[in-house]
Write a structure and sequence with these properties.
By secondary structure, this protein is α/β, with parallel strands linked by helices. It folds into two domains: 133 residues, Periplasmic binding protein-like II (D-Maltodextrin-Binding Protein, domain 2, 3-Layer(aba) Sandwich), CATH 3.40.190; 154 residues, D-Maltodextrin-Binding Protein, domain 2, CATH 3.40.190.10. Strands 1, 2, 3, 4, 5, 6, 7, 8, 9, 10 and 11 form an eleven-stranded mixed β-sheet that branches.
């Protein structure tokens, strides 16, 4: 890996200080003056390394950079990255940061195939096939965990639903649910599958993020995949769902429709609990309403991590400096502004280490 000018300067300064200190004291204070073995370089991997986190270098004065940075990917992660980019303008006023949010899958495709995109947000982990495509194009995706969130089930405030099992969600949202337009019909199908939930009466309409979004794909992974495969049908959401691209649009649509049920990030759902109802979810271990404590403790069944993926083969100093600022300086505040659940300080240090030790 090519070192940035900032790192070389800092390394030279530290070496000079060490030599002066050694001359003054006559030797090292570590290990009775015995030489310490050099750290061996970590072996690179597709998703980065997991070596010990480096010490923070937040006092470094960065070199002045000019140019542009394009960031693509998840609309869920966009809020975190946008908050970071706002602060980065003060650090590097000569760098313009352009953020587009077309979904996790689209973002990872950009990372793998578009030379202008070196960083993407993701609300799910990269797949093996996507990683293979990246590597084939000379891109080495480094996985950088940022925060935690969950996938919440939301309904109109008028809804009397309280809790849904995975079986209920499959009966409402799975491929065999296409055309089931009333709660009575969904309830009958859910009962056939073994559910004992009382669905009541009334119309029902599913509103979900589009297929390019990580929330959509994780919902399929969490709930649809196993049930659909065991029944010999395709693993996809009902084809008559209403697909929307942003969290704001989805919440607005559910709030306006008494028959609507939707899926959205749990933190965003919690921020809008005054206009939509959060429905509890049970995977067989009891019903849990999504909130920060439940997500942090792993009690809410449909929880997830949020990520950045960056090209570990990039030699662009703007990419390196932006990620240093993102992960070592701005992450906590940005996650708080976006309303997600922060990682522990140890986990954040491990995330920084995955990039700096790539």
């Amino acid at each position: 890996m090519n070192r940035s000018p900032r790192r070389l300067w800092v390394g030279s300064l530290l070496l000079a200080i060490a030599l002066v200190a050694s001359a003054c004291t006559g030797g090292s204070n570590v290990g009775d003056g015995e030489a310490q073995p050099e750290d061996s370089a970590p072996e690179p991997s597709v998703l980065g390394t997991t070596t010990e986190p480096p010490e923070s270098t937040t006092t470094d004065v960065p070199p002045e950079l000019t140019g542009s940075l394009r960031i693509s990917g998840s609309s869920t992660v966009e809020g975190v990255t946008a908050a970071v980019a706002e602060g980065y303008r003060t650090r590097q006023p000569g760098v313009s940061v352009d953020i587009t949010a077309e979904g996790t899958s689209s973002g990872i495709t950009d990372l793998c195939t578009d030379p202008d995109v070196s960083i993407v947000g993701a609300s799910r982990a990269i797949s093996g096939a996507e990683s293979t495509t990246c590597l084939a194009n000379g891109v080495r995706p480094i996985e950088l965990r940022l925060a935690r969130d969950g996938i919440a089930v939301i309904a109109n405030k008028a809804s009397d639903l309280q809790c849904l099992t995975y079986t209920d969600i499959y009966a409402m949202a799975g491929p065999e649910s296409t055309g089931l337009s009333t709660r009575e019909l969904v309830g009958e199908f859910a009962n056939e599958l073994g559910s004992q939930t009382d669905w009541g009466t009334g119309e029902i309409r599913l509103i979900a993020p589009g297929p390019a979004h990580g929330t959509h794909q994780l919902l399929v992974d969490f709930v649809i995949d196993d049930a659909a495969s065991s029944r010999g049908v395709g693993t996809f959401l009902r084809v008559d769902n209403r697909s929307l691209d942003s969290n704001a649009q989805l919440v607005e649509a559910v709030a306006a429709d008494p028959g609507a049920i939707g899926f959205v990030g749990s933190s965003y759902a919690g921020q809008n609990s005054n206009v939509v109802k959060l429905i509890g979810v049970s995977d067989g271990s009891g019903c849990v309403i999504p909130n920060d404590a439940a997500v942090t403790q792993g009690l809410y069944p449909m929880s997830r991590d949020l990520y950045l993926y960056a090209d570990g083969a990039s030699e662009d100093p703007i990419v390196d400096d932006f990620l240093f600022y993102y992960l070592d300086i701005a992450l906590n505040d940005a996650v708080g502004q976006a309303g997600y659940v922060a990682l522990s300080s140890i986990e954040q240090a491990e995330t920084l280490a995955r990039w700096t030790n790539r």
